[in-house]
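Aggregate trends can hide what the representation actually does to any particular protein. The sequence in question and its structure tokens are set out directly beneath this paragraph.
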Amino acid sequence: MPFASLFFFSCAEINNEHVAEKPNIIIIYADDLGYGDLGSYGAIGVNTPALDSLAQHGIKFTDAHCTAATCTPSRYSLLTGSYAFRNNAEVLPGNSPLLIDPDKGTLPAMLKEAGYKTAVVGKWHLGLGNRELDWNEAIKPGPLEVGFDYSFIIPATGDRVPCVFVENYHVVSLSKDDPIQVSYDGPIGDGPTGTSNPELLKQQADPQHSETIINGVSRIGYMTGGHSAWWKDEDFADILTEKAESFIAGNKDNPFFLFFSFHDIHVPRIPHERFVGQSKMGPRGDAIVQMDWCVKQIMKSLDTFKLSSNTLVIFTSDNGPVLDDGYADRSVELLGQHQPGGPFRGGKYSAFEAGTRVPTIVHWPEKVKAKVSDALLSQVDLYASIASIVDGKIGAEDAPDSFDFSKAWLGKSDTGRSTMLEESVATLALRDGQWKYIREVPNVENYPVWVKDIKAIEHGVSTEAQLYNLTNDPHEQHNLAEKYPERAKEMRATIQEIEKRATRPGWANE
């Protein structure tokens, strides 16, 4: 059987065992957290007791992946069951229109149809509104148009304007007497910037992050007005966790889905003062401690309402780690012996393995037994896998890349995908078991300058194809493409077959 054909028959695992009582579902999504950044995955210099407990009493996955090595594409794939390249999804500016088509199926929309109350709390970064968005009016389309009943979000990221929270359709605490203006085209207003007033900064920043100053931090983009609505970075953990806890409390008597999307440990890393100095790695390590505290609070809420036993908690990250990402927070100098990507090469932005291999933990006391699993899994499959668990329905044209691996996600099988796509900023890679292929890029000079200028990023892009055997070479040091040309050719052809498949195979949703 041709290699490409084998892919289609081996990557779906149909599960007809449905849960009688639908579980609550919480996806806790960390930002820029690397494979080695938790204690249970070998972290040095930072303690993560809450997450280590989840790993000890749940399933710790050693070969689970986000779909892409950057945030917007991974978030898009998780919620839509579609690879990001199908929609040219890239890291978005803070004023981009909604990336997800409201007419297409999504994970929250599927769960809503299945009887769930749905919410997103935290970082969004999938665009809002249409092209001419007025932040002073109702902001839509947005999360509520793609399946969420409630949303409390950071519109883009902490390092991008606008630096406000949006609850459902409106900016929180905004005064009509002080309207917001946002621009990514050039300066607006007369407020200070990181370039003009560096003495006002809590952390110095690179030129890209040296525009409008909010809360002593210079950001990407320009913003003026809306002063009453400006956030304080130090309050992210408390505010977002309280909103998540409130949603849980308000929906304790019916099935709910919560997408709790952390800002931590993305830059700027400005943890609350009570977490400062709680690690040996400075702000980046302290932000990990803060993130772990948030998880602890969520689990406490579940215990309070006696929901823990029937709540499926999935903890993972949107991409691999990055240290120096625009702000002088001493993340490199204070790293010590800690390895954010664990034993793997690369990180955020990179086609190498640490770009997408991220810590992943599943906890569900009623159904999941403690174990370590090396099943090869991708977040793109959470849509179809969760649909199988709750007996949800997926439209024939929706989630074209999502397949049911619920048995592997729940630890009933150690068999995951046979092949798996990995997206990075400039190329596509493929896993075939322990073989890893990175497709060549003819014009490496076209790789984004803003990524090439980031220190210590091994982007993994080359004018030559790359082939690695991860069993013998987990750090991807020895390119075997010339030694095994037929295997490289077959894996390249499989990538091309995946690119061509634009609709969901009918059998995958039987």
The CA atoms of residues 24 and 311 lie 4 Å apart. Residues 24-146+236-266+273-417 form a domain with the Alkaline Phosphatase, subunit A fold (CATH 3.40.720.10).
